[in-house]
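User: Hey, quick favor. My workstation is busy. Could you predict this chain's structure for me?
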Amino acid sequence: MDAGTAVESSAAVSVPVTPGAMAKGEKARVTSGDKLMMKHSEAAFTKVPPQTHLDQKLTVCSKLCFAIGGAPNQVAGSATAFFLQIYLLDIAQINPFQASMVLFVGKAWGAVTDPIVGFFITKSKWTKIGRLMPWMVGCTPFVVVSYFYLWFVPPFTNGRFIWYLGFYCLYQTLITCFHVPYSALTMFLSTDQRERDSATAYRMTVEVLGTLVGAAIQGQIVASAHTLKHCPHRNLTTGHLGNSSGTEIIRSLALSQDFLSHAKEVYMIAAGVIGGLFLVCTVVMFLGVRERDDPYAPKTDKAIPFHKGFILVMKHGSYLTLTAAFLFISVAIQMIQSNFVLFCTYAVELRDHFQNIVLTILMSAAVSIPFWQWFLEKFGKKTAAFCGITWIMPFTVMLVFIPNLIVAYVVAVSSGLSVAASLLLPWSMLPDVVDDFRLANRNSKGHEAIFYSLYAFFTKFAAGISLGVSTLCLQFAGYDTGACRQPPPVVYTLKLLIGAAPVVCITTGLLILVVYPISEDVRLRNKFALEELR
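Assistant: No problem, here it is.
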């Protein structure tokens, strides 16, 4: 449950840098006289003029524009995470096996494109508007078009699987072209860790709000597509929920064609609104965020080839540990997200309340982001991860065993705390891993996009597997596409996908995080060591 741009750190030195040199798309230049000064005077390297420090201080406006740029990805991601699965099954009416293939192949394809886009980013040249801004601005219109057609039901029936598979893969490719350069920008907003952490907190707060907006728009607009009002009134007693004696009764409770036409229409309206928000947020980011080369990177830095950078990154222990831990945690969150609407619709009597429960989860997450930012600064990031993410486990299990509306809202508030922590912490900890890598590989540069693209690759691929497997489980349980009620095995499977399976994944991730080597002491040592190098 990601705005701004990312640029590779280019060679520069600690010489006077005027504010004009930091204008948008402009590199800090070094004269030959400056080089001689560096060579013969150590003071020229260690003393930095006051205005250089001021240039690295981020304004609130800059942080907000950076954060707003990441909102559209989360708005669209929230809508797809919560509603794409039930849309494919009940509105587009493709069978569960085909839906599982769309979700898995689409996510896997998006994962594969992450390192590919990262490779091309390392080869990008500086332009008048920067190195990475052209990627994001250029792909945005195509992202909007592909997103809209992902929620469009074509008039033909036989080729719908190919339609959704193609547009989901296209959407994943284009959103990767936006997200990879954006997420890596964190390293180049400032050389100060506190400034980067502050910008990350802004980003996560706005992204959680974006997730909230996405769920609100999608949920409120399409809520009428998932209500019992459109089902036949016969045989709709609560006794049929998980207790039907035969699938022939359930199959008779099919949705009418008039209702399906209405459902298709409201989903397209929601897609159009979210597409418009995507365009607006990208414009705000373009106008308010400046790409900057790192003015403090040592002059001896040299770019490394992508394949060598890949090998170096994959050998870095702290990166592998962090990625593996949050891989399992993100799989758990993704599993809950994708199956939650189905769970509320078919496993418990909450189908008329699911959109408000989802909003409660996300509102709790948005409100708690500043708290977790304070907590990680006070007690450390590793401690914050353990304290924050464990909250969701007992409460999701409680909802499975006590399917009550009041309990559902209590679970929603507590789960929002964990969602916020799972969103904030990996992106706050990744820059620390990159700093640790720079100290271990002091004469290399251009690896930042590799770190972020590979992290996205692993998490997306794992999420794709979890989505595909969970939808296949529904297929094996006997999910009936387009029915108002589902048989008992489907109800039981949904309870497992919301309760037991996420608990196992989160527990595994936290156990891996125990051996994460970058404690607060290590992080501070790395910070001071990098300051000496710069």
